[in-house]
């Protein structure tokens, strides 16, 4: 059994942005490379779920120590990508779920989530900002089935809210930022 696996959700079509957000440059890396770099420092078991732009994303990260999983039903939404990824990592005790489009979240925040999860092994350990509990978050094994069967537009948030009594959180205001618009893309260059 693997103690902790990391899932990077990187399969969206970037419809609001109009370009492949996974390939946007942030400092000296693309967003997907940045996410893979952080994730590979947290676990030896890292899975990147692709969908739209699969071939471009795969070519960008094929040399990195990550597994690449193509979700052919990516247009169905995040729930579909989450389901195929969790099924792939069902032999893990816990799964850290992260997006590829939140480059401002520091590596130390992910490590803090893991540290708290190590102490509270059966709890959901989520990121909090402005009283919102969200990804990045660590889910314990007993919630994997729910992660694979929910059909919500925001499955992780729904499960977090449903299991509030099992929730622990760490604040990170930088999690409020994700790359979704041209203005967000410009923020990366500052």
Automatic annotation (TrEMBL):
GO MF annotation list: nucleotidyltransferase activity
Pfam families named among the record's database cross-references: NTP_transf_3 (PF12804)
Sequence ranges assigned to domain MobA-like NTP transferase in this UniProt record: 6-163
Tree of life domain: Bacteria
Keywords: Magnesium, Nucleotidyltransferase, Transferase
UniProt protein name: Molybdenum cofactor cytidylyltransferase
Record organism: Pleionea mediterranea
Phylogenetic lineage: Bacteria, Pseudomonadati, Pseudomonadota, Gammaproteobacteria, Oceanospirillales
């Amino acid at each position: 059994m693997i103690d902790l696996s990391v899932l990077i959700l990187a399969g969206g079509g970037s419809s609001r942005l109009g370009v492949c957000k996974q390939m946007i440059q942030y400092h000296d890396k693309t967003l997907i490379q940045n996410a893979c770099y952080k994730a590979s420092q947290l676990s030896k078991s890292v899975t990147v779920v692709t969908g739209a732009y699969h071939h471009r994303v795969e070519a960008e990260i094929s040399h990195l120590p990550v597994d690449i999983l193509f979700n052919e039903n990516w247009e169905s939404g995040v729930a579909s990508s989450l389901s195929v990824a969790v099924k792939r990592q069902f032999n893990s005790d816990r799964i850290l779920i992260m997006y590829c489009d939140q480059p401002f979240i520091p590596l130390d925040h992910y490590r803090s989530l893991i540290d708290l999860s190590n102490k509270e092994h059966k709890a959901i350990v989520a990121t909090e900002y402005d009283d919102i509990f969200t990804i990045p978050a660590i889910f314990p094994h007993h919630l994997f089935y729910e992660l694979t069967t929910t059909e919500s537009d925001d499955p992780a948030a729904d499960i977090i809210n449903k299991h509030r009594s099992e929730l622990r959180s760490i604040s990170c205001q930088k999690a409020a930022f994700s790359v979704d618009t041209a203005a967000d893309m410009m923020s990366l260059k500052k």
